[in-house]
């Protein structure tokens, strides 16, 4: 039975490593091709040195897979937002650390809704959009 690359990765690696590989894949469609060995897939899916994890990390992952040893730790970044931090994207407003209580909210909006927002939010919107 043939296996897709993504299935092989999920079978052989913990999910956080699979997620990092998916984020780094140069051509995400390759993840749904027929899989060879996991070693071949790790070497061909992306350029290790062009990732935030770096060449050394992926080399350690590769060696761990080959040798069957413990995988290197994935560095997790923790972001602490100032109270009342607001981000606007094309169709979503994200509010972080509301009232300095570490409460985060996200909601969708239509760009035409900007006229209905408070002046402070509207000012933030145009600052971010410019």
Would you mind describing this structure in some detail?
This protein is 38% helix and 13% strand. It is α+β, with helices and mostly antiparallel strands. The protein folds into 2 domains: 5-67, no CATH class; 85-129, no CATH class. A 3-stranded antiparallel beta sheet has the order 1-2-3. A hairpin with a 3-residue loop joins strand 1 (85-88) and strand 2 (92-98). The longest helix is centred in the middle third of the chain and has 13 residues, at 55-67.
Topology:
Blueprint: H1 5-12, H2 15-24, H3 38-44, H4 55-67, E1 85-88, E2 92-98, E3 103-108, H5 119-129
Antiparallel strand pairs: 1-2, 2-3
Tally the beta strands. Answer: 3
Strand % is 5-15%
Question: Helix/strand-derived class?
Answer: alpha+beta
Kindly provide the radius of gyration, computed on alpha-carbon positions and rounded to a whole number of angstroms.
21 Å
The topology string of helices and strands comes to HHHHEEEH
Largest sheet: 3 strands, antiparallel
Feature tags:
130 residues; alpha+beta; 2 domains; 3-stranded antiparallel β-sheet; 38% helix; elongated
